[in-house]
Amino acid sequence: MNARWIALLLALATPVWAAGQSAELEFVSEHPIEGIAQGNLSGLAWCGDALWAVSDREDNVLYRLDASETVWQAEAERFELPPVPNTGLSWGVRMRSAVAGLFRGGEMDFEGLSCDSLGNRYLVSEAHAAVLRVSPAGTADWLKLPGGLVRQARASGMLLNFNAMFEGIAVDPGADRLWLAAEHSRRGLMVMHRKQSAWQCTGGCVLLAEGGREATPAAMGEGEQPRRFSGLAFHKEKLFTLEPVPHQICRRRPSTGASELCWSYAATALAEARRYDTPFGNAEALWVDEEGAWIGIDNNGLARADGEKRPIVWRVAAPKGGWGAKK
């Protein structure tokens, strides 16, 4: 086959290939955060008139973020942690989590944050597969989750391995539905519905459970990694998942977990000055609003290429046509 025919075939194939790629979200700004004592930003949520954050290294504090300057200041709000319920996790997973908490801090390993219209904050504990609700007054209580939640997740291949548990949480404004995201090996989505003060599975808790691997952006040079969720958000009757392997945000159906459309933030994350010396994507927190999304970075104490060691929040603009766009 001569060079002319090869060029023609490539030209015909390029639009098909490009159509399968995620559109790039426009970078707006970035904000280092001062005042999170242990670092390790793991959750973001807009509650009331401010953005709030949680660290997976602290068990009894939330942070209100003062965004009046480029560098944000975190203001601590402490609460009293009630005794942790038994959610049915295996003894081995619970013991490994307890030991890890002793050495690194953060026995609860809070890995997500959401908020309802009344200003209640919801934190998911990876170590205990439990959800803590913190009221605007600062009182805390564990939600009464369905007894079969963990059992159903494990039967679907999720929550079987230490440090691969619940990694994201989202609640609708009325606090009638609550979703949890399992991180990896297998990753998945679960949903519960509120009935008075308790939560129940309606037709089963598991919406999605999937294994497999997917490609990292070519610029990382890392090949494929296990599929992973690292954050979850709810906006205008859609779920949004933070997916750090391909560096993208995906819109999903709240009733099934099915993916509808994805957008990339790889250009933001992989800009030379923002790179960390790690083979993994380290975006851990997500909040979506009408104008864009906030993406929180858990740097695990690492400095990036420009020397920045503080937790970082990126602002990206909503895609052209908004988050409800068809393509």
UniProtKB/TrEMBL annotation:
All residue ranges annotated as the Phytase-like domain in the record: 39-186
A molecular function GO annotation: isomerase activity
Protein name (database record): DNA topoisomerase IV
Signal peptide region: 1-18
InterPro entries: Phytase-like_dom
Pfam families cross-referenced by the UniProt entry: Phytase-like
Protein keywords: Isomerase, Signal
Claim: Signal is one of the keywords in the record: yes
